[in-house]
Amino acid sequence: MFNTPEHTCDIVEVRLEPHPNADKLSLVRVGDYQCAVRTTDWSDGDLAVFIPPDSVVPDTKEFEFLGKHRRIKARKLRGEWSVGLLIPAPVGADLGQDCMEMLGIVHYEPQVHGHFSTGGDNVTPPEGFFPKYDVLNFRKYSDLFGDGEEVVVTEKIHGANARFVCVNDTMYCGSRSNWKRMDPNNLWWKVLERHPALEAWLRHNYGWGIYGEAFGQVQNLKYGAVPDNDIFFATFDILDGNRWMDFDEARSVGAPLPWVPLVYRGPFDKDKILAMAEGDSLWPGANHHLEGVVVKPVKERTDRRLGRVQLKIVGNKYLSKS
Q: What are the residue boundaries of the RNA ligase domain, all occurrences included (predicted)?
């Protein structure tokens, strides 16, 4: 969907701000992230590698101070969120350079688990354009939105990315990366089998791609799923050819489908939207916090550099507990 990497570890310039509750700590802002550091370790103008949350660092000398805690998370330090990690920049590194590969850092990928299979054989993709689904990080690119622009904020569900389409009277079920051969034990085929309205809709709307999330007894947030009703599905996008439908159009033509909950619709307000990512899930039966939210304009548009304008916020509360 775009060529910009979703997860990077960039060189940034340090600017220290006072920590309101700790004399020995300072705060450094990287985009819309906030990272706490020991004041004596840094000076304004220093270059650092910012390692965002959900990075996994290697077991090397640079990171031995972390011990076994090699997955970077968020936590509160003296009442302020510290999200991610700052380390001194490698010698010769340039401002803005991505050092992820150089440092051997990888993006954390949560394991999908449950009474189903996620492997099995793949099949040839259906005819047409049905890309992998990627969403960039709001905390890095929030300036894509203008103050007051009408946006929608939907719940980011924690599960497994799923896509479905009917082409030439053949049903296709796919993960984010692959289209899967029919298997009654496969997660994505189980979703189709347990949601007959989804298959009926797809057969009535040949060639339109449904993108959504398979969730429940799938990841560590369960959304009220129980053993006899363990897999849910929620739509978040409809693709018509190479065109993503506007929010209102998609919700209208896809009215028979289950959808991710709408958190907010109205003028863009960055601070207000960041706070929404720290709330509780709106999925009926869920009794836990959100994973986060997704923000996009009511009317679809693209950015010349980054492509489709749609950004995700993973909540600090989720990052600290997952």
A: 149-313
